[in-house]
Amino acid sequence: MPHFSNTGTTSGLRSGYHRDHHLTINRLHSEKVRLLYDNLWQPVLSSVLAGALLVAAMWPVVTSWILLTWLALLVVVSLARLALASYFRRLPALQQRRRRWLYRFSAGAIAAGCVWGAGGGCSLYR
């Protein structure tokens, strides 16, 4: 009675599963990054509006050139983030899948956070 091993079939199924799993993970990652860029205008617009309100509220307390410099920096960072999103949307889907786009999005979010953090130090000056 011959003995047949099914390890070849099992490992083939396993490698097929791993390949499909890896492709699914990559597709999900790409979709998440695309959603981040597609919806970026909402938090950026909110950030600039909140910054303008903060400047208006702090105007009597903080030197005007400091507030205007901070607001200008916030607007520049926000415009840079929107320009990056616009460039991302024009790329072919294959290029949008590169991991660097998540890193660039993160760098923009960190830059905006740093500008907001610097805004907290603005109240120390008068």
Features:
elongated; mainly alpha; 126 residues; 83% helix
Please explain how this structure is put together.
- With 126 residues, the protein is mainly α.
- It has one domain.
- The chain is 83% helix and 0% strand.
- It has five helices and no strands.
- It is elongated.
Order of helices and strands: HHHHH
Helix content estimate: over 70%
* Mean residue pLDDT: 86
**Estimated structural class:** mainly alpha
Number of helices: 5
- The total count of strands amounts to 0
What order do the helices and strands come in, and which of them pair?
Elements (H helix, E strand, L loop, with lengths): L6 H32 L2 H18 L5 H27 L2 H4 L3 H23 L4
What is this entry, summarized?
With 126 residues, the protein is mainly alpha-helical. The protein has 5 helices and no strands. Helix 2 (41-58) packs antiparallel against helix 3 and helix 3 (64-90) packs antiparallel against helix 5.
